[in-house]
Amino acid sequence: MKSQSLSILGAQVWNGTDFSPQDLHIVDGLVSAEPAPDAETLDGSGGWLLPGFIDAHFQAYATSMDGLENERGPLSYAAINGTRRLEKALRRGFTTVRDVAGGDIGLARAINASLFDSPRYLFTGPALSQTGGHGDPRSEHVDICFSHGHMCEVVDGVEALRLAVRNRLRTGAHAIKIMTSGGVFSLADPLPIPQYSPEEVRVVTEEAGRRGSYVAAHAYSSEAVMHSIENGVRSIEHGNLIDAATATAMADRGAFLVPTLAAYDAMDRRGAEIGLNEISLAKNSEVLSKGQEAVQIALAAGVSVGFGSDLMGDLEDDQLRGVRLQADASGAAATIHSLTAVNAQLIGDPRAGSLAIGSYGDALLLSENPLELAGALSEPAARLAVVQAGRVIR
Q1: Closest-CA residue to 60 (of 122, 4, 145)
Q2: Residues 338-357: pLDDT tens digits?
Q3: Dihedral of CA 114/117/121/126: which sign?
Q4: pTM (2 decimals)?
Q5: What backbone torsions phi and psi does residue 43 show, to the nearest 5 degrees?
Q6: How far apart are CA 290 and CA 129, in angstroms?
Q7: CB 308 within 8 A of CB 259
Q8: Residue 24: domain span
Q9: How far is CA 125 from CA 58, 61, 109, 293, in A?
Q10: For site-directed labelling of 162, which of 68, 148, 171, 293 has its Cα 20 to 30 A away?
Q11: Do 229 and 368 share a domain, yes or no?
Q12: Does a structural domain hold residue 228?
């Protein structure tokens, strides 16, 4: 990834809780106490400077609203389309993303080689699903074989899962994604029912933990979330249907919640017009109204709440709308914390999500104070500049 030296002058700079006036210096891509002699300058006067945002539930390979189409098309097409999705996310101010269903070492290598502009990229590889689970794209009337696609792999049994985890970690996966409940997008599984046996979930978390990694689980209901965290899962994706007792259990175990409010709102508003199937539209109605409430329940219990988008196909341009929805639920300050410090803690990178000395030189310059005008977090027009590793992207 390309880096350079830059001094952003005269801005109000985020310190983790509030803004204070100062100059921010980036030297060779990292925040520094002193400017580089040859640094370029960016006038930040009248602007409000935040760390670059982190999206902890991104989908680079989600080219379609049709799950089977996502899995059966050429990988080259998915990857090339993914480069476009990633570059657009960067220009919205997301300087790091965690791809939790797909991605691979080839895409990560292209990003690290600066073949195109992209957020910093962490991937899990294809998510793990049981037969008939959330990652199995077949409807009940489809009679074909399916085991491995670009975004999901169907794997059953303890030893098969052990091998699948080892292969992902061998090929550069940041974390492991597992499906532990039904989902909106899948066609043959009820939303609340837990998936995989305790032994199957446990072998996945044990193998990941042995390598210093962790597991993210797709889970909606309290039953599925408890099933996940009791067997070692660290990151709960979605969690719309959790109750207060489950949230307390999450907090006690140090589990994170990554809400994905943009996805349900986008499917509700736009799903029918772009061809989302009737089964998924009906399932979406079950979780749509509960997403913001789940964020509030989790925060009240002391859960570390991050941010994710989970937008498929043409819905990708609603990423910033998800920021607005989360700010509506938790307030601007908590949402900034979710987009930066919490997600940085989740991915285990102290250089992300901060503008402290030694952090990545990734920043977002806004025209308004987001603590006073929360809409500044989500309005494209409020973005004066996006900076990554000291490079002004826009």
Answers
A1: 122
A2: 999 999 999 999 999 999 99
A3: negative
A4: 0.96
A5: -75, 110
A6: 24
A7: yes
A8: 6-51+353-392
A9: 12, 10, 14, 30
A10: 68
A11: no
A12: yes
